[in-house]
Amino acid sequence: MIVLLAPEARKRTTRLHLDGDPPPTVVVGDPSKLMQILTNLTINAAQAMPDGGTVTCSIETRRVEPPGAEGLPERDYVCIHVQDGGTGIRRADLDHIFDTFFTTKTADEGSGLGLAVSSRIAREHGGWIGVITEEGQGSTFTVYLPATGAPAQA
Q: Which stretches of the chain drop beneath a pLDDT of 70?
């Protein structure tokens, strides 16, 4: 993904960086749809840094309890983090970022579909997308996908 998106990032004076040496990880899913999630998150991260900067990606496997899953046990998830040092997300917008057609971008920058589609794809693969953000400090989006051996939920 880093190699494929590097030219687009350079157009925005943004550098893509893979943090560490990712461990071998396996998830079951549609590679093109998973690539769509990562592409959307990476482009959003670059757009959040109008003066350029670095988008840092990292991967880990972690035992997590799914959000809103009362009674469901913790299990292993592959966590793909996409972090930027951009503008962050306003608190008032945070509850809407995964809504279809919600955007804070101008018409030529985005349609408000990227995060909504990415969230749907993650759910189709038994996972979800989480975000940690602070206005003026940047955001970290994390894609949680069931690690091999963990049953996926549709």
A: 69-72, 102-112, 149-154
User: Which residues does 105 contact at the CB level (< 8 Å), separation at least 6?
Assistant: 47, 112
DSSP helix/strand/coil, 21: coil
Contact 152, 146 (CB under 8 A): yes
Cα distance between residue 103 and residue 112, in whole Å: 5
Residue 110 pLDDT: 62
- pLDDT for residue 95: 86
Give the pLDDT confidence score for residue 33 in this predicted structure.
96
Q: Which of 4, 93, 79 is nearest to 48 (CA)?
A: 93
Q: What domains are defined for the chain?
A: 2-146 (3.30.565.10)
Is residue 90 classed exposed, middle or buried when 0-12, 13-18 and 19+ CB atoms within 10 A define those classes? exposed
- Cα(18)–Cα(150) distance, integer angstroms: 26
The reported pTM is 0.86
Residue 103 CA to chain centroid, in angstroms?
A: 16
Provide DSSP, 78-100.
EEEEEEE-S----HHHHTTTTST
